[in-house]
Amino acid sequence: MGSDKKKKDGDKKKPEIEVKPTKVIELKVGLHCKKCVQKILSSLTQMRGVSRIDTDLEKNKVTVTGTVEEKEIVKKIGKLGKIAEPWKESSKSKSAAASAAAAGLKFTIKEDQPGIKLVVVKDQPSNCALM
Question: What is the DSSP letter of 47?
Fold first, then answer.
């Protein structure tokens, strides 16, 4: 009778599952039209760890909720030929060039008029950001 003892739950080793905290990541992205928004939504929904995506076409804002890292989102958006940078209410596109460089994109800075600069991603001239 005593030899048929069940193992206690404490005796069994259960694999530990790492639970990542959920984050809200806000990015400034050049959203020119509904097609731009759709391309970003389509791309980001395929990423593991993304649970929600909100876009604001008028503000050029993309908000991603989930366990995914910001640099992964910026890189994924960069592959679409878009420049993503952290959202700040007074965000200037000065850092657009830095974001493009961080995403590994080739770009040029053009100054067509004094005080107005554009960051143009090479091979994708329709994707630019004002500086």
Answer: S
Domain boundaries defined on the chain: 21-130
- Order across the sheet with 116-121: list the strands: 107-113, 116-121, 128-130
Copy the structure tokens of residue 68.
Answer: 């995914």
The Cα–Cα gap between 57 and 83 comes to 15
3-state secondary structure of 25: strand
Considering the domain 21-130 in this protein, what is its CATH number? 3.30.70.100
Let me know how many helices (H) and strands (E) the chain has, helices first.
3, 7
pTM strictly above 0.70: no
Q: How many CB atoms lie within 10 A of CB 10?
A: 6
Amino acid of residue 13 = K
pLDDT digits 0-9 by tens, 10-59: 556 777 777 778 899 999 998 888 888 999 999 999 999 999 999 998 88
Q: Measuring CA to CA, which residue among 130, 127, 129 is closest to residue 35? A: 127
- For the chain, helix, strand, coil in percent to 5 are 25, 30, 45
Report the run of H or E that residue 51 belongs to, with start and end.
Answer: strand 50-56
| One-letter identity of residue 6 | K
